Amino acid sequence: MIPQPGDVYPEKFSYLNTPILKEQRDCHMTHTSALVHDLLREGFDRSPMFNGRIKSLGPRYCPSIEDKINRFAEKDAHQIFVEPEGWHTVEVYVNGFSTSLPEDVQYRALKSVKGFENVKFFRPGYAIEYDYFPPTQLRHTLETKLVNNLYFAGQINGTTGYEEAASQGLMAGINAHLKINEKEPFILKRDEAYIGVLIDDLITKGTEEPYRMFTSRAEYRTLLRQDNADLRLTPKSFELGLATEERMGRMKEKQDKSQRFVEFFKKTSFVPDEINPILEEVSSAVVKQSDKLFKVFSRPKVTMDHMLSLNSVSDFVKENQLNSEVLEQAEIQVKYSGYIEKEKNNADKLHRLENVKIPESFDYSKLKSLSYEAREKLEAIRPVTISQASRISGVSPSDISVLLVFLGR
C-alpha cells in the first residue's frame, strides 16, 4: 500500500496550552480493481440498498462502495484509505469501502484488494437508514415551533456527520438552559461561525438529503477561518460561562499581541537596500525608495520568514515574546486585509436587514404584490427577520422590497 504520512507540523485541536503531537502513525492508500468490482456485483441482489429494502437517499458525500461501482461504472478503480484505529491495536478503519453487502461478499472482495490479501474482519460493514423531521419546523435556537421547550439536534434535523450533530447539540443545550433561566437566546450569525451557517441553512432552506457542512456553503468564509475561531467565539463562550478566565486571558493576549504586531508593520519603514535582496529572491519588483513594511509584506511571495530576517522585525518579536500563533494571525491580517475588510462591509449590510424583525403572526396573504411562490414559502417557514427571508429559495429581491415597504423601511 502507499504510505500517507501525517502533517509535517501537526496542529493542535485546542487553543489551550495542550502538548503538540510528537509521534504519528501513517495511514495507507490502496485501490479497488475490476476483479474487486466483479466480486461485489455478485452480491447486488442481496444488498438492501439495491433490492428495495432501503428506500431513503444515502449521504451524497460518502457513498457506499456498491453505489460508487453502480454510479461510476466507467471507473475500474476507487481509492481506499486505511486508517489505524490507535497505537496499541491491529484494527484499521477501511475508509471508502462502506457497504451493506452480505458478509461473505465483503470478505471475498476485500481479500482481493491489493495489500488486504490476509485481511481479518472484526466487524463487517453495514448500512443504516434514518429518518428526519423537516428542520424548517425549528427556530434559530433549535426549539420546535409547534412544541414549546422541545429542542431538536443532530440527525433528526436531517444532517449527516459527527461535527454537525455535536454543534447542534451544543447550541440546543445552551438555548434550553438560557430559556429555563429566562435569559435571551444565543444565536450565532452566518458571518460569526459555521454553526450559524449550518443552522440557518437548515431552518431556512430545509434539506432533501443528508446535510453536510462545507466551507462553500458560507458566503463569509474569509471571516470564518480556523486561525481566528478563538477570537470570534471565546468572548461569547466566556459570557455564557463556558470558557474559563484562563482561556479568555490567552485569547486576549493573542489578540492584543497580533494587533500590536500589525500596527508595527504599518508604522515601521524600511530602506531599499535591506528589502531589495528579499524582493529579488522572490522575483518581485524592487523598490527605489523607503516605504512602510506593511506595503511590502502585502506582496504575494513575501512571507513572515522573509520579514523575520530583518533586524527591526526579529527584535520586535523577541522583545514582545511573540509565538507562532501570533505570527500567523498577524501575517493573515496583513496579507488579506483588503479582502477581510470587504467581507466585513458586506456582513454589516446584511446585519441591517437582520435588525428588521418580522412579527410572528405576520399575515403574508395580505400582500398581493408578493409572488405566489414567495407567499407560500414565507408562510411555511415564517422567517424571523428580513435577512432570513431573503435567503429562502424562491423569495426574490423584489419580494423583499415589498416586505420592507410594508414594514415601513
Short précis:
With 409 residues, this protein is mainly alpha-helical.
Helix content: 40-55%
Which topology of the largest domain does CATH recognise?
Elongation Factor Tu (Ef-tu), domain 3
Structural class: mainly alpha
The side-by-side strand order for the widest beta sheet comes to 1-2-3-4
Low-confidence stretches: none
**Alpha carbon gap, first and last residue:** 64 Å
Largest sheet: 4 strands, antiparallel
CATH class of the largest domain: Mainly Beta
Can you name the CATH architecture of the largest domain? Beta Barrel
Over the alpha carbons, how many angstroms does the gyration radius reach? 27 Å
Strand content: 5-15%
Count of separate DSSP helical elements = 16
Query: How many domain units?
Result: 4
Number of beta strands: 6
From N to C, what is the helix and strand string? EEHHEEHHHHHEHEHHHHHHHH
Overall pLDDT score = 91
Overall shape: it is: globular
Which keywords apply here?
409 residues, mainly alpha, Elongation Factor Tu (Ef-tu), domain 3, Arc Repressor Mutant, subunit A, 4 domains, 4-stranded antiparallel sheet, two-stranded antiparallel sheet, 6 strands, 43% helix, globular
